[in-house]
Amino acid sequence: MISRLPLILFFIALISIVLPLSAQDNGPVKVYTFEEFEPRLYQETDSVYVVNFWATWCAPCVKEIPYFEKLQEMYKDDKVKVLFVSLDFVTQIENRVVPFIERMNMQAEVVLLNDPRSNRWIPMVSEKWTGAIPATLVYTKGHRAFYEREFNFEELEEIILPLIN
Question: In the chain, what are the domains?
Answer without folding.
Answer: 22-164 (3.40.30.10)
